[in-house]
Design goal:
The complex is a heterodimer. In chain A, 38% of the residues lie in helices and 14% in strands. By secondary structure, chain A is of the alpha/beta class. Chain A has 11 helices and 9 strands. Chain A has a 5-stranded parallel β-sheet with strand order 7-6-5-8-9. Chain A has 2 domains: 151 residues, 3-Layer(aba) Sandwich (Rossmann fold), CATH 3.40.50; 148 residues, 3-Layer(aba) Sandwich (Rossmann fold). Chain B has a 5-stranded parallel β-sheet. Chain B has a 3-stranded antiparallel β-sheet with strand order 1-8-7. In chain B, helix 1 packs across helix 2. Classes of the chains: A alpha/beta, B alpha/beta. Chains A and B meet through helix 1 and helix 11 of A and helix 3 and helix 4 of B.
């Protein structure tokens, strides 16, 4: 048992979901298995299950987001939880309240779960370390560090199309340097035992520690996607770029933009993924984005189910702790 | 269960299911429930339903229901370790539904299953068929068709094993459950 892992309770159950690292294949597989069940809720006439009735989930978004915040909100609502959306940048923090004071105030309102997005790496971990013991924290993206629910929804999408990870070749293309999504994907692929993982990017967008990512590095798109089963594109994160890492978006597309022609070296049944939002004509052209091999919109639907699975697992673990208190 | 013995053999269960099929046909005919849909509750209920579905020769495919998201003990024990996807291939609205489970005891599973059903649609009617029923009801729920009636000692439980062959085994409750059973019914001790 990993006693130092803040994400797990004493019995190894998921209490917080902050990063993929340190969770192990069993727990990652458990998340994917449970997601299958939650996917069916979207087929119900009443798209809601009563699991988290009476629980309060607070979305703390210190950084803007549409897709992630909306899907977390929808996931919480489909679990019958009540949701608070706090737009922190325009609220108390702007009036000088510290992060911990904001937390204490929300805890006083009996919030059961924080979903946190923050521009600083480690923010969600910090909140988990300082929150009340009965509160769970889910990382919805922290700086360049981690975006674990995005990583898991990508794994879920891959597993639905390709089955077992052991024989798969997965290529991740683009801005690895600034991408918390890429870090979570690579950790999850490693954790689930993917056969071969590749990263494809210009030299300026690959981090210095790339060797430790456990992936083969390519600087040529055509070479990198050759015989791949899955091609994952990343968004160019202009807002995080400092200095001249790229000459222009136009030139990036010339070298690393995915087109049907460049995709032709991948396996014929390869799928194309993107965490969104897409920059059409930068990371990929519209023909690929809207083409038959694109599963981009499916990723969005799967994202809701994955978030339902993770949220209910964490809140279920809180219940166990409550029970232990009663038994004691 | 620590020690187990066979309570009903595969052959006995086959006979019981045969009888259930006949009773179900009769019941549906009496009620005028045309073209019913059959739905089994994971996991044992699905095994029984597969056999009943074949015997009745129903036109629509068998549905499968998982009640993990509707259990009333989530606030005590968290998410059930084995969540399986529900699969209801046909819309339920205005249809007659046969709900099938393996063993009926407290009635809580059926309460949860009914809630799942009604989140999928509004059936015209629901009847309940269970392979076995025993004492211990905690809700006002009774089956319409039953294969076997179990008369058990305090602390005993029956469990269906399968899918092939089906067997009902008799065993002892885990000690914690037994304590609870005795506490709620102390005269049985």
């Amino acid at each position: 048992m990993n006693r130092t892992n803040i994400q797990l309770d004493g019995q190894g159950n998921l209490k917080h979901f902050l990063t993929i690292e340190g969770l192990g294949r069993d727990l990652l597989t458990q998340i994917l298995d449970k997601t299958e069940g939650f996917l069916m809720v979207a087929r119900q006439a009443v798209k809601k299950v009563p699991l988290c009735r009476g629980k309060i989930v607070a979305n703390l978004f210190f950084e803007t987001s549409t897709r992630t915040r909306t899907t977390f909100e929808l996931a919480a609502k489909r679990l019958s939880a009540d949701v608070l959306n706090l737009n922190i940048s325009t609220s108390a923090t702007a009036k000088g309240e510290t992060l911990l004071d904001t937390l204490r105030n929300l805890e006083a309102m009996h919030v059961d779960m924080f979903v946190v997005r923050h521009a600083e790496s480690g923010a969600a971990h910090f909140i988990a370390a300082h929150a009340d013991p009965h509160v769970s924290v889910i990382n919805a993206g922290d700086g360049r560090h981690s975006h674990p629910t995005q990583g898991m929804l990508d794994m879920f999408t891959i597993r639905r199309h390709k089955g077992d990870f052991a024989n798969l070749c997965v290529a991740v293309v683009g801005d690895i340097l600034h991408s918390r999504v890429a870090r979570s994907q690579l950790a999850a692929l490693k954790g689930l035992g993917a056969g071969e993982v590749r990263v494809i990017a210009p030299r300026t967008l690959i981090p210095a520690e790339a060797g430790t990512l456990g992936a083969r590095i390519f600087h040529d798109l055509r070479e990198g996607v050759r015989d791949a089963d899955v091609v994952i594109l990343l968004r160019l994160q202009r807002e995080r770029m400092r200095g001249a890492l790229l000459p222009s978006e136009h030139e990036y597309f010339q070298l690393f933009g995915l087109t049907e022609e460049r995709l032709s070296t991948a396996k014929p049944d390869a799928i194309v993924m993107h965490p969104g939002p897409i920059n059409r004509g930068v990371e990929m052209d519209s023909q690929v984005a809207d083409g038959p091999r694109s599963v981009i919109l499916e990723q969005v639907s799967n994202g809701i189910a994955v978030r339902m699975a993770v949220m209910s697992m964490c809140i279920g673990t809180q219940n166990l702790q409550g029970q232990n208190h009663l038994d004691a | 269960m620590s020690s187990t013995e066979v309570w009903k053999t595969p052959a006995e269960l086959e006979l019981a299911i045969q009888r259930m099929g006949a009773e179900l046909s009769h019941l549906l005919e009496t009620r005028g429930s045309n073209a019913p849909i059959m739905i089994g509750i994971h996991t044992g209920g699905v095994w029984v339903a597969e056999r009943l579905h074949r015997k009745l020769g129903l036109g629509d495919p068998l549905g499968q229901l998982d009640i993990s998201f509707y259990r009333d003990d989530f606030t005590r024990i968290g998410l059930h370790p084995q969540v399986r996807p529900s699969d209801l291939p046909v819309p339920l609205d205005d249809r007659h539904v046969i709900l099938v489970d393996d063993v009926l005891q407290t009635g809580r599973t059926i309460r949860a299953a009914l809630n799942v059903l009604f989140d999928y649609g509004r059936p015209a009617s629901v009847v309940l068929a269970t392979l076995a029923e025993r004492d211990g009801r905690e809700l006002p729920i009774e089956p319409n068709v039953v294969g076997l009636h179990a008369r058990l000692q305090p602390g005993q439980q029956i469990k269906l094993t399968g899918p092939d062959p089906l067997e009902l085994v008799l065993g002892q409750c885990p000690r914690k459950l037994l304590r609870k059973a005795l506490a709620s019914n102390p005269t049985d001790e």
